[in-house]
Amino acid sequence: MNKYFYFVALAMVIGFASCNNDDDSNNLDNLKESVVADYATLVFNNYTAAFNDAQTLRTALNAFTSNPSETTLQAAKDAWLASRESYGITEAFRFANGPIDIIGTEEGPEGLLNAWPLDENFIDYVDGSTNAGIINDPTTYPTIDKDLLIMLNGEGGEENVSVGYHAIEFLLWGQDLTDPSDKQAGMRPHTDFVDGGTASNQDRRRAYLNVCADLLIDHLQLLLDQWQEGGAYRTEFLAFNKDEALSGMMTGIATLSKSELAGERTFTAYDNRDQEDEHSCFSDNTHRDLRLNFAGIKNVYLALINGTENNSIHDLVSDQDAALATEVRAALDAAEVSVNATAIPFDFAISDDSTRPNVLAAVTALRALGDKIAEAGTALGIQVDTE
Amino acid sequence: MKNYLSYVLFLTALLFCIQCGKEDFRLEAEEGEEMSGGSGTIFSVSNNAFSFQHPGLDDQQGLFFFTGNSLFNQNWVTAPASTTARDGIGPLFNARSCSGCHFKDGRGRAPLTQGERVHGLLLRLSTGNDFVLGPMPDPNYGGQLQDLSIQGVNTEADFEITYEEIAGQYPDGTPYSLQKPIYKLFNLQEGNITATEISPRVANQVIGMGLLEAIEESTLLSFADENDLDGDGISGKANYVWNVEAQATTIGRFGWKANQPNVRQQVAAAFSGDMGLTSSIFPENNCPPSIDCNEIPHGGDPEVIDVNFDKVVLYTSSLAVPGRRDWEDKDVLRGKLLFERANCGSCHIPKMTTGQHSTFNAFSNQTIRPYTDMLLHDMGEGLADNSPDFLANGREWRTPPLWGIGLFNIVNGHTNYLHDARARNLEEAILWHGGEAEASKQAFMQMTADERENLIKFLNSL
User: Fold this and answer.
1) Residue A16 above 60 pLDDT?
2) pLDDT for the residue numbered B24
3) Which chain A residues are Cβ-neighbours of B103 within 8 angstroms?
4) In chain B, is it the N or the C terminus that has fewer CB atoms within a 10 Å radius of its CB?
C-alpha cells in the first residue's frame, strides 16, 4: 500500500513538473506568436504610410511636369523628401525573405524601388556628356513607358538603374557637382522640363518622371497586396513555424545593421571618400537614410508601432536571458547615439577629416549591434545571419 | 502452426528487404552535404544568393569587402572625369563594370538580339598557342574582341550568332533538340583578321573563388590521370600557365580553360581585357593598331591603383557559396545516386578539403563540395573551340564547378549553361557532353524519363 502510494505520488510529481514545463513553453510559444503577429501589423502600417506618401509624391510630380516652375519643382522635391521618411524605415523588412526581396519564386520589387548607386548617364545627360542617357536617345527608345524602363533596369550592369526613388531624385536634383564642403545638393534647373528650356528632350524628361512615379505606386502596391490582412504573404507568414518567422525578422535587422547600413552604405563611402557612393547623393539626403534605416531596426526590435512598444523580440530575449537583453538594448542605444552624431550632410561627413571619425564610429556601433542581435538569436535557439 | 508462423515471418522479412532494397538504403543525405562551401556556406534562395560575404572574414576584411563590392558594381568612366577613382576605361572594352557581365555576381549569357551589348559573353581570338606564353593574339584585333569603345574610337567589330538546331532522340523515343552556335564577325574596323579560331567565353558565377584557390596543387594532381592508366576513358590533366607575379609557370585554376593561375591574375586580366583598365599586373593598355593610345587621356598609372585592386580581389575571393536546397528530398537523392552511377563524379568530384590559403585564413582546411576537379578534359568535337590555351588543346575544357548552378534562374533569370551559354537548360548541357564524358552522357540517355528528371532535380539542388 505504502509502496503503491509512493508510486502514485511520484507519478503526480512528474506530471506536475512536466505540466509546469508545458506552461512555460506555452507562454513562450504564445509570446512568439504575438511577436510575429505584431511584426506583420508593423510592416503593413509602415508600407501603407510609404504608399500614401508616394501617392502624394506622384501628385506633386504630375503637377510639376504639367507646369514646370521653380515653385512646382520645390514642391516635388519636398514631396520626395517626405516620401523617403516613410520608406526609409521599411528597409528594416529587407533581408528577411519577405515580399520586398522575393515574392513566391520571383524577385521582389526592391531593385525597382530603391536601387542605388545609379549611373546618372544611363538616364540623362551629365556634366560633359550632353547626349547621354535613355532620355536623350529617342532613336533607340522612341517611347518612354513602364515596360521600357522596367526592361532597362539593371541592363548592362547593376549600376544601370532606370527607375525608383533615386531615379526620381536624379531627375529632380541633378548631379551634385559641388564640393562636399559647400554643403550643396544638385542644382538641376526646372527649365530642363520646359519645352525650349535648358538641355534637350524636355518632353521625354517629363514623360520619364511621370512613368517613374506610376511605377513607384505599382511596386509599393505589390507590397501592400502581400502584407494586408488576408494577403498571400501575410497569411503564409503567420502560418510559419514561429522560429522560422523570427529568424527572418531578426536576420533582416541584423543584416541591415551590420552589412547593408554599416558596410555597403556607410563604410564604402567612408573608405572611397566619394560622394558618388552615398545613398541619396543628388539631394544630399543620405543623413536621413542613415537615421531612418536605424529607426527601422529599432522599430522591429522593440515592435514600435506609432511609437508604442508592443510584443517584441526584446521581450523574448528578456524572457530567455535578461542580461543579454540589457546588452542588446545598450548596443541599440549606442548605435543610435553614434548614428545621430554623424555630420550633415553625409558627403561632408565622409570627406572632412574632422567629421570622418564619427562616421567610422557609427560603422563600428552598427556592426556591434548586428552581432548582438545574432547573439540574441542564439539565445532564442534561432539562426540569425548578418551577411 | 509453428511452421505457418515462421513462413509469415520469413515473408515479412523478404518484403522488408525488397522495400528497403539496395537503393533505398542509400537514400539518406550524407551528414553535412548541404554545406557546399564548408563552414562558410550561406543559405539563400533570393536573387542575391551569390552576393553574400563569406562569414569567416575578419572585421577589417569584412569591411573592405563592401568597398570591393562597390568597385565591382560601379561603372568606370572615360578619363578625365570628376570621378577620379574610377576613370580610364577603354579605349576598347566589353563592359563598364565587372557586374555588367557578372550580374549579381552570377552567370552571363549570350546576347538575345544581335547588337545587344554587355550580356556576359565575349570572343577570344588567337592565331596559335605557345605552351609557355599562351594563346598568340591576332596582330590587329588582339586576344579578344571588344565590342564597345570610348567616344572617338571605333569599336573593333560586331558579331552575330546564329543557331543551328540539331534534333536527337533518347533510346526511349523521347525527342530533343540542341542548338549549335555559329559566329560571324562583321564591321571589321582594324583591317584583316588573321585569327582563324573564335573562342566564345561566358562570364562565370563568382562564388567560392578563394576556396577553389585554397585547394592544394597535390590534391588537384591526385585527380589527374593524364594517360588514363585506370582505363575508365577519363584522363584529366592540369593546365600550367604563365603566372605574371611569380614570373614562372604555375598550375592553372580559373577560366574556362584553367588559363589563370589565381584570383589576382584573373581579376587583373578581366580589368585589362574586358574593361581596358591597367593594373600593376597588366600595366600595358590594350591598344588597337589604328590609334595612338598616347594621345588618349588615361586614368592614372595604373588606372586601378593597388589599394583598390586588392579590395576587388578580396571581394572576388570571398563571395560565399550558397548551400544546397532540397538535399533530403528523395527524388534529389535518387538523382544523386544516378549521378554517381553514371560516373559524372569522376570529373565533377563532389567533395574535397582545402589546404592553407596564403591570404585568407577563412578558406583554409575547409571540406567543400564544388563538383569539379579543376582539370582539363577532352569534351569531344561538339564542344570543341579548336583554340588551344597553354596546355589545353582545342577540345579540352576545365570541369566547371557545379555549385550554384541550380540558382542561375533566380539570380540571373536564365538557365543557360556551358562555355558559350548554348545549352538552354541542364538537360541540353548534359547532352552536349562528349569525348571523355561520352560514356556518362550515354548512361544519362539510357535512363528512364523519371530517372533523367531526378538527376536534373539533383543538379538543381546544387
Assistant:
1) no
2) 57
3) 154, 157-158
4) N
Q: How buried is residue B181: exposed, middle or buried, by Cβ count under 10 Å (0-12/13-18/19+)?
A: middle
φ, ψ for residue B196 (rounded to 5)?
A: -95, -25
Alpha-carbon gap, residue B330 to B204, rounded angstroms: 30
- Residue A157, chain B, CB below 8 Å: the answer is yes
The 3-class SS string of chain A reads: CHHHHHHHHHHHHHHHHHHHHHHHHHHHHHHHHHHHHHHHHHHHHHHHHHHHHHHHHHHHHHHHHHCCCHHHHHHHHHHHHHHHHHHHHHHHHCCCCCCCCEECCEECCHHHHCCCCCCHHHCCCECCECCCCCCCCCCCCCCCCHHHHHHHCCCCCCCCCCCCHHHHHHHHHCCCCCCHHHCCCCCCCHHHHCCCCCCCCHHHHHHHHHHHHHHHHHHHHHHHHHHCCCCHHHHHHHHCCHHHHHHHHHHHHHHHHHHHHHHHHHHHHHHHCCHHHCCCCCCCCHHHHHHHHHHHHHHHHHCEECCEECCCHHHHHHHHCHHHHHHHHHHHHHHHHHHHCCCCCHHHHHHCCCCHHHHHHHHHHHHHHHHHHHHHHHHCCCCCCCC
Distances (CA, A) of B445 to A375, B233, B427, B453: 50, 18, 10, 11
Query: Among B59, B62, B99, whose Cβ lies nearest the Cβ of A158?
Result: B99
The mean pLDDT of B385-389, rounded to a whole number, is 96
Mean pLDDT of the region A235-248: 96
Grid coordinates representing A191? Answer: 527649365
Tell me the average pLDDT across B196-225. Answer: 96
Distance separating alpha carbons of residues A101 and A90, to the nearest angstrom: 12
* pLDDT at B1 > cutoff 50: no
How far is the C-alpha of B8 from the C-alpha of B407, rounded, in Å?
50
Share of chain B above pLDDT 70, in %: 94
Distance CA B92, CA B290 (A): 12
Q: What is the pLDDT of residue A212?
A: 98
Rounded Cα distance, B312 and A299, in Å: 35
Contact B45, B289 (CB under 8 A): no
CA A202 remoteness from chain centre: 32
Looking at residue B109, the DSSP 8-state letter turns out to be: -
Task: Give the separation between CA B350 and CA B223, rounded to whole angstroms.
Answer: 12
Cβ–Cβ gap B55/A385 under 8 Å? yes
Mean pLDDT over A306-322 rounds to 97
Which chain A residue's Cα is nearest to B50?
Answer: A387
Taking the model in full, what pTM does it have? 0.88
Residue A25 half-sphere exposure toward CB, CA atoms < 13 A: 7
B328-380 per-position pLDDT tens digit: 999 999 999 999 999 999 999 999 999 999 999 999 999 999 999 999 999 99
Q: Which triple of cell numbers denotes residue B302?
A: 595604373
